[in-house]
């Protein structure tokens, strides 16, 4: 379901500041990068394992990381190179 006219659900939880981790997107109020959270998920960590090991995060933060990644990838355009 796509809701038009609404801010993305991650907007209040994900931020990027050049002074924090060289501007990588992080969970607001932490130095935990979205990329790192996604790496944990890709490595097979459950949400419960992530929350137990990183008490500064909430389930909503983890979901915001996934939503942010989805939105970034939705904007990506791939143009196949011509065979030379």
Give a quick precis of the structure.
The chain is mainly alpha-helical and 84 residues long.
Overview features:
Arc Repressor Mutant, subunit A; two-stranded antiparallel ribbon; 5% strand; 3 helices; globular; 84 residues; 2 strands; mainly alpha
Structural summary, described in words:
The chain is mainly alpha-helical. It has a single domain (14-75), classed as Winged helix-like DNA-binding domain superfamily/Winged helix DNA-binding domain (Arc Repressor Mutant, subunit A, Orthogonal Bundle). 39% of the residues lie in helices and 5% in strands. It has helices at residues 34-42, 47-53, 59-75; strands at 14-15, 26-27. It has a two-stranded antiparallel sheet with strand order 1-2. The mean pLDDT is 90.
């Amino acid at each position: 379901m796509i809701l038009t006219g609404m801010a993305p659900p991650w907007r209040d939880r994900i931020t990027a500041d050049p002074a924090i981790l060289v501007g990588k997107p992080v969970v607001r109020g932490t130095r935990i990068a979205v990329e790192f959270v996604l790496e944990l998920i890709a490595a097979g960590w459950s949400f419960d394992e992530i929350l137990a090991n990183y008490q500064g995060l909430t389930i909503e933060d983890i979901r915001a990381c996934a939503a942010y990644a989805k939105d970034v990838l939705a904007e990506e355009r791939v143009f196949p190179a011509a065979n030379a």
